[in-house]
């Protein structure tokens, strides 16, 4: 297959097409200045990207939608040239919540449809607007999910024209089989988005998916941002691997371009994230070289079967009190303010010097406190908060001394 900048899409089993490279858009919302996703998406479109991987839980779909809509309005692209993948979050698995969740994404994006809508994880959290619900012991509150019922609700969204294609993410073979063997299956999952790169090549899942005409979309294809709050840092930095660097040198390419080309060349879609103009461009420049068979084999040989993304929430709440995934509002120096996202990505280590902090550092307050939480100032919801700890978080106060992207020390309440 001759892949070029202008022609690098492959067919999905439902007849739609997916570009082999897309821009990943997850970036720690508390460390990422407002407008970064917007600027990055516009710049990516200028460089030739047509595929964008997003999610409600990334809390930046409004910026991505705005960027795409503006590039459509100024005539750079047509909507049908854009491929947007959205994700159903864990709290919206009950069938009756699926369409409203997708409609929320569509409204935020200002789109009539997404190109692909996928179940982000095969596990469900307690339904509701608290994205990371936890009990009083800080354990995630799971919900008995019927994946097949959730899937049927996705099928209905496709039939209603709200999404062109439907798929899954983080599904293993057994979970895929549950869907594929479902009596009365109307639409097969067209794709499975999973971690995939030379240190985690997924040979078995890849083979199973190939047999079943399911495209693998490889997330964290560059080995992640190595954010210690959710990445397994025992795994060495992928892009420093001597073999990848030396293969890159032979081709006049970077290790990043080599790992992206590696996956693309074996039919795995890649969604590298970059919010840096130079690297956005670099990551897309993978269609002017190819890897030899020997190089492909040598890169496959790097597989360590190690995940960078540990998906801690799947293994149960290992971090007391909600170090990650807290949904609540913050209170800083006596001010109450709306946190932009709740506490999806709070970082308290600079203050406490340990991670995670021992439970004694966040004693349960007497009584329960209620704080309104209004992500992005749109549809608000409330969170019942029971704990308090001193932490560092990045707030979105709109105050000069606490602007988005600036760390501030504050007392933060988490549910
Ligand atoms: P990634 O794409 O493997 O790596 C992103 C990191 O690499 C960022 O720190 C980025 O920094 C840096 N980078 C980008 N281009 C580079 C280059 N050419 N050279 C050196 N460094 C470079 O990691 P990821 O964000 O974990 O995964 C990508 C996307 O997959 C996400 O954004 C998200 O859309 C999706 N994802 C999905 C799931 C899921 O459960 N379905 C899980 C994880 C991720 P700069 O931004 O500064 O360039």
From TrEMBL:
Entry's Gene Ontology molecular function annotations: Delta4-3-oxosteroid 5beta-reductase activity
Transmembrane segments: none
GO biological process, one term: bile acid biosynthetic process
Domain NADP-dependent oxidoreductase, residue spans: 21-303
Superkingdom of source: Eukaryota
Pfam families, per database record: Aldo_ket_red
Family: Belongs to the aldo/keto reductase family.
Protein name according to UniProt: Aldo-keto reductase family 1 member D1
Origin species: Scleropages formosus
